[in-house]
What does this fold into?
Amino acid sequence: TMPAEMAAQLESSLLNCPDSLDADTPKLYQTPLSLPHPTSIFFPNET
Amino acid sequence: YGLKALLPLIRREDQSADYDPSMTLGIDLTPVLHSLGISSDANGRQRVLDTFPSPWVETSRSEVEPRFFIPESFTKIPNILQSGSNNPVFNSVQQDHAKISLFQDETLFYLFYKHPGSVVQELTYLELRKRNWRYHKTLKVWLTKDPMMEPVVAPGGASERGSYVFFDPQRWEKCQRDFVLFYNAIM
Amino acid sequence: TSQEKMFLVFTEWVKLLQRVPDDDIKVTVFIRQMMDKGVVNSTENVIQFTKAAIELSVGSFKESDPTSEVFIAADAFSKLIVKLLVLQTFTDVSRSEYLRLMLSVITMVFSEDQGMVGNSFNERPYFRLISSLLCQWEEASAHSFMKIQDQQYRNELVEFSPDFYNIIASFLHAFQPIAYPGFSFAWITLLSHRMFLPKMLRLPGKAGWSKLVLLFTDLLKFMAQYTKRSDVPDAVSVVYKGALRVFLAVANDAPGFLVENHYELLNNLPPVYMQLRNVILSAIPKNMVLPNPYDAELRIGDVESCQHVPNVYYDPVRDLKNLKKPVDNYLRIPSASLSRVVSTSLFKPGSQKDTGIGYDNVSVDTKLINAIVLHVGIEAALEKDKTTATAIFNTKSSYYTLLASMLHDGNTEVRFHVVQAIANQLRYPNAHTHWFNYVLNNFFLSEDWGNNTAEIQEIIVRTLLERVVTNKPHCWGIVVTFTELLRSSECSIMTLPFVKTVPEIEHIIKHL
It folds into this structure.
């Protein structure tokens, strides 16, 4: 039987499970053109 | 070790007693394979691990950037965008703002849809308007008047009926449509 | 303090990377200055600097507003590791030792953090560090380090790259879920990472396979440890679902890996995971087309690919231990005393908990049984190539009689695990599938079992049936063998007592 503490650690790991955004390629340097900018709310906000 | 051992698996009613059927007898894998992008016909075999977002569907919330390589020929293009013999760059608002007007419509549409919420989306919006394109707020597409035909303004002046050219971002092409255009729907 | 100096240097590095592209000359100058000013010029300083960098990376994650860029420091740190590996010349220590040193420091900080009282531990910054390290290394090494001008240098780095992945793999082995349950989900995500798993599968000369089998075994051992019959903790069933998808992706992209490593993977797969077992054993070499296993005209001996001996990546003879001699001697010159040595060595001291379908304990050494059965199959296939088919497709051959004696002299449990081990070899059309199909058919029809006949037949039917009633995929060899038994004119399964006494089973077999 899994010890209670281990089950708790496993649970917290499940809660913090990395998703595909965490696994995406790092982008440290943002060129000024791709810096965030307040565009219209009507514009598409997903690529 | 005999056949009777299989009964708890096979009998549906008392499943809870012994085994979790989804892990013993398993499940129909069709939806799982589909979620992986694996087509059932073997010869259509596309590799999936190179773009594997995450082991679970629930955490595969977005596509992940796969391994890619930018060939020299994509970066070493002299004499375009006023770059002279150097490589073209397009990464600063001050210097490169003017270059926007050198781009074709499709390039502007690409930049607009590819970089949401960024400076470049704003710049392409302004440039497309200059070219008499208008952005439709609810359809979320760009359109412009069909030069061959003058639209008819509706009485009351809130809208017009005419023939317009739309840019369809799904099919990535311009298409002509007859359409009733409400002036408050575009920007 | 020197630690604060290290913090300062790393902070400057993070700021720099946000202001200039990483191939900007200023980045290289920064690394140069770090080397010239002695920030990383001794093991002691590398340890101090690495410790500072990982602590700041994890600290900034914990303190950042979750909606902001919480991984900037971790990404900058992974970029720094890659730059230090690529830009430095390594004389007194090797690149591998250098990378191991940095990863060891990270492991220590990770262990302290994970072991901290309570569950404040968060796996995500450590996940992101390794994930970004893999991405940055991929970018640096693209097209054989195209960005490096110096040819000799490029060769050095190209040669180091497989080591890079195997070193990451060894640290993943250290971070495995049984050791660090709080890192389990990050661990599975790293194992299947798009910049890791495909690379390890495709390193030249299968250089990544040993470590990869080790990692998959770690995963299966963890699942086996905590998969009881009914109350499987939710988190473990989520682990299972993730593992199933990863195995399906591997079966799709690199079936050869499962084809050649089925022996080791099955040694560690909990027997209750029958569909996962089918997925692993149903893998077939790329571009192989399977003849229809239900075809009544099919003669397994006529299938061309049954002449080919499948490659087994890890030779089971290594698991025979001190039985290697008796087994090989028996295969050369059979004798009752040798077969007795084998049959009496199959038991484990005391019984072990192991959740199976219909049993909770195991008192035989299933790994040893798997090794003997597959070893005999490998030797038989080699013998056929050396001499003739009749030398092994013959119930008097030592290959056949050794397995028969294990059944004859064994108890019910031994018989069950021997038949399971044989069924694990009934895969796609190959020389092993062909021979074990012959063995199982003859076991089923043999009269040599005396009053154990019914028991052995029932074990054979159960073993085949459980793999056929499980959801697809089904192994070609299992279907062919079971279809032959169902059609057998010499013995109609429907009339066997152990089938007639269980209506549900009788109904299923009639349907089949």
In short: Chain A touches chain C at residues 1-2, 6-14, 16-18, 22-23, 25-31 (CB under 8 Å). Helices of chain A lie at 4-15. Chain A has one helix and no strands.
